[in-house]
Amino acid sequence: MNRWDDFYKEDSRVLSAPISATSVYAKSIFDSKKCSRILDLGCGIGRETLALSNNNREIVGVDLSFYGLSLACKNSKMQNCNFVQTDARFLSFKDNSFDGIYCFGLLHELTSNTWHKQLEQIMNEILRILNKKGVLVLAVLFGLPKNGLPHVRLFSNEMFDNATHDLICENKCILYDIGCTGSTDYRIIRGTFLKP
């Protein structure tokens, strides 16, 4: 069991939280680029995964939390949506197998002493499984929140840019609201990238 299994069991607010503005943004990007196969990397309970869907695309949500994925499967009524329990550092998908990847809520969870290596492993996997000209929508917590979150690593601009240096940046911005909690205590940095 990991801390997310415990979190999903203990905090029912996550089940009723609205989808984030970032997932709405990502869906519009994936729609405009006609992405037919999308990966939601770090999908949790699948709320954002379902928001990314449409009838013309396959969605795969991956997460390490068994309990979160069991909730995702229970709540998903779509036939074109699958959920897989796996570690984002060691994905079992073939090279160039996704047109789009959505990643929000995962990278800022890397808090161990080896977080640099873990980040590099995840970004290498993203590059490996993303099609040429495929699109990545990536978002992480940014800056210094007032109330603090001891379980997350807040990204700086430099950290974000270093993580995405192998990709072509189409758009990058800082948002002053996570977009799903109603709280403005936390900011996110969000980028849209293409694989060269």
Automatic annotation (TrEMBL):
Residues 39-138 form the Methyltransferase type domain. It holds the Pfam family Methyltransf_11. It comes from the Bacteria. InterPro entries: Methyltransf_11 (IPR013216), SAM-dependent_MTases_sf (IPR029063). SUPFAM superfamilies: S-adenosyl-L-methionine-dependent methyltransferases. GO terms for molecular function: S-adenosylmethionine-dependent methyltransferase activity. PANTHER family: TRANS-ACONITATE 2-METHYLTRANSFERASE, TRANS-ACONITATE 2-METHYLTRANSFERASE-RELATED. This is Methyltransferase type 11 domain-containing protein.
